């Protein structure tokens, strides 16, 4: 194929290929968890050595489970609040706005670095309905002003927090909770042990990126904004659907769940404000 898009991203941006590939592998699995066909289409249009991601059947299923959990929470939010905004930060090449049916009254905003948004524009169809993209670093102070603050928001950021420094994560949480009339924050975190073991993650090692922020106690974040309440803190080792992992992955999770210092290695968090 000659029209495939050559990828020159490095660092945290390059890691979007790992999650994309994970979703594509899951779709081709015997028992798909997410079944994201658009991810397969996008992956096929990319000229990149996906072996660099180090994705295996087990880690791909883990990526799919995390994405499915966040999808379920977003759908729950949109159903309860059909006049709302979905703020999808660090979207990478994730096809969530294509994957999820949403009420016509929901505004969807995808945000990532300008290079990544440019890639999305080349590789992904424009989703239907009220949709826009913003090319910016989420740590900047300017981009959020482009998102109307007239409705409740569900801000979802998958695979982002660990690339931020804690202070940047705190500012991000405070800018979102301070701007909108209410809503939810959905995001995954590494624990500090996960941050220490980061070089064991092939996508991190091979992209030359560095992880900084680990969260051991999700309640600490509640103190960052008045009325911010943690609704869920799901350990990766306890996620619904783990029985769908390949046998080797199920065994790994079983072991991790029984080692106190390792069982908090990753979590998916849901807050309301
Ligand atoms: C592991 S990928 C996850 C991508 C996507 N959420 C997914 O699950 O497929 C990490 C993403 O975070 C983005 N990212 C990291 N730091 C960022 C920042 N400061 N501002 C905007 N995006 C950022 C990268 O560009 C990349 O798309």
TrEMBL record:
<dbReference type="InterPro" id="IPR029063">
    <property type="entry name" value="SAM-dependent_MTases_sf"/>
</dbReference>
<dbReference type="GO" id="GO:0008168">
    <property type="term" value="F:methyltransferase activity"/>
</dbReference>
<dbReference type="Pfam" id="PF04072">
    <property type="entry name" value="LCM"/>
</dbReference>
<keyword id="KW-0489">Methyltransferase</keyword>
<dbReference type="InterPro" id="IPR007213">
    <property type="entry name" value="Ppm1/Ppm2/Tcmp"/>
</dbReference>
<dbReference type="InterPro" id="IPR016874">
    <property type="entry name" value="TcmP-like"/>
</dbReference>
<keyword id="KW-0808">Transferase</keyword>
<protein>
    <submittedName>
        <fullName>O-methyltransferase involved in polyketide biosynthesis</fullName>
    </submittedName>
</protein>
<dbReference type="GO" id="GO:0032259">
    <property type="term" value="P:methylation"/>
</dbReference>
């Amino acid at each position: 194929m000659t029209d495939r898009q050559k990828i020159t991203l490095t660092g945290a941006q390059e890691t979007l290929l790992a999650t994309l590939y994970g979703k594509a592998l899951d779709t081709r699995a015997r028992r798909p968890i997410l079944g994201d066909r658009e991810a397969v289409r996008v992956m096929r249009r990319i000229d990149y050595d996906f072996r660099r991601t180090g994705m295996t059947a087990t880690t791909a299923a883990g990526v799919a489970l995390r994405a499915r959990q966040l999808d379920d929470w977003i759908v729950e939010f949109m159903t309860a609040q059909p006049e709302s905004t979905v703020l999808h930060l660090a979207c990478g090449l994730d096809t969530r706005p294509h994957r999820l049916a949403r009420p016509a009254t929901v505004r969807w905003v995808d945000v990532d670095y300008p290079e990544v948004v440019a890639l999305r524009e080349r590789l992904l169809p424009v989703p239907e309905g009220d949709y826009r993209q913003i090319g910016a670093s989420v740590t900047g102070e300017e981009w959020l002003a482009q998102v109307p603050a007239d409705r409740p928001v569900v801000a979802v950021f998958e695979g982002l927090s660990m690339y931020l420094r804690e202070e940047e994560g705190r500012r991000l949480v405070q800018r979102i909770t301070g701007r909108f009339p209410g809503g939810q924050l959905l995001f995954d975190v590494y624990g500090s042990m996960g941050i220490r073991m980061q070089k064991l993650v092939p996508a991190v090692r091979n992209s030359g990126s560095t992880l900084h922020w680990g969260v051991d106690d999700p309640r600490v974040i509640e103190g960052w904004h008045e009325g911010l309440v943690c609704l869920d803190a799901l350990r990766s080792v306890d996620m619904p659907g783990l029985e769908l992992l390949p046998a080797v992955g199920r065994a790994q999770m079983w072991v991790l769940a029984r080692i106190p210092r390792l069982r908090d290695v990753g979590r998916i968090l849901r807050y309301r404000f």
